[in-house]
């Protein structure tokens, strides 16, 4: 690994390996190359989906940033192709006013997102948070079983009466935190800090989204009681099915 570079405020003390930036806007690409280059030993910028796919077939990357608006494929379409050939974390880059692209990207396997105009400090914070989430979960928790729910944390697989579902990296880390603290109310801030990092302690809306994803995967259907109990304005509590009978799912997150 090369010597540590002079990094922007808040970036010193950590480094990421090789990064692929998929960005067709030259100005944005230049800014991202310079920003990420302060913490990465190699940054490659490409402007098309075709070039991105060629790059990941030729080299291994530790992180990919992916612009939603590309000339040959949409970012979402490219994300589907990337997930077939690499498990590198992906940060979606979207323009203001594209909430549907953010939701679709997160549902389809993106690990995070950032909204243009790019702010270097925020970009580095999100990259740092994603790299932390790549580390093994804090608890030595391999499996969990409760009623018809079985979770294999090593394989990131959930099995319920409704079938088998795969957990994303973020969903797995969030579920580990919830299960490890079963019976305790975990505050929004604690969950955000443990799963996403300190820079995300105020991003409660993002936590709500992932709680909704988890409920769909672990509860076995909308008519079933939820194992994730909402404590409005405070946080969430994971409860065993035997204690969840009074906690039927609602639209409340």
- Show unreliable segments: 1-10, 244-251
User: Percentage of helical residues?
Assistant: 25-40%
Total domains, how many? 2
Number of strands: 12
Question: With helices defined by DSSP (H or I, 4 residues minimum), what is the helix count?
Answer: 8
**What kind of sheet is the major sheet?**
5 strands, parallel
CATH topology of the largest domain: Rossmann fold
Structural class estimated from helices and strands: alpha/beta
Task: State the shape.
Answer: globular
| Share of β-strand residues | 15-25%
The CATH superfamily of the largest domain bears the name Response regulator
- Strand order in the sheet with the most strands: 2-1-3-4-5
**What is the highest CATH level, the class of the largest domain?**
Alpha Beta
Radius of gyration equals 19 Å
Distance between the termini: 44 Å
The CATH architecture of the largest domain can be given as 3-Layer(aba) Sandwich
SSE topology string: EHEHEHEHEHEEEEHEHHEE
The pLDDT mean sits at: 83
């Amino acid at each position: 690994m090369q010597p540590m570079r002079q990094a922007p405020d808040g970036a010193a003390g950590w480094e990421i390996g090789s990064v692929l930036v998929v960005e067709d806007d030259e100005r944005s690409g230049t800014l991202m190359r310079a920003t990420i280059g302060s913490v990465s030993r190699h940054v490659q910028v490409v402007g098309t989906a075709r070039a991105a796919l060629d790059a990941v077939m030729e080299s291994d990357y530790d992180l990919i940033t992916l612009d939603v608006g590309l000339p040959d494929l949409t970012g979402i379409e490219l994300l589907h192709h990337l997930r077939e050939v690499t498990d590198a974390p992906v940060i979606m880059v979207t323009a203001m006013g594209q909430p549907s692209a953010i939701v679709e990207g997160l549902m389809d396997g993106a690990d995070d997102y950032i909204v243009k105009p790019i702010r270097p400090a925020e970009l580095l914070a999100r990259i740092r948070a994603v790299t932390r989430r790549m580390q093994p979960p804090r608890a030595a928790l391999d499996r969990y079983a409760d009623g018809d729910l079985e979770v294999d944390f090593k394989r990131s697989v959930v099995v319920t009466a409704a079938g088998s579902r795969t957990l994303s990296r973020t969903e797995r880390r969030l579920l580990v935190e919830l299960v490890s603290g079963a019976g305790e109310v975990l505050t929004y801030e604690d969950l955000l800090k443990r799963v996403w990092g300190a820079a995300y302690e105020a991003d409660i809306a993002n936590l709500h989204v992932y709680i909704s994803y988890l409920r769909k995967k672990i509860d076995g259907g909308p008519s079933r009681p939820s194992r994730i109990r909402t404590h409005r304005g405070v946080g969430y509590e994971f409860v065993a099915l035997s204690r969840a009978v009074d906690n039927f799912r609602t639209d409340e997150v």
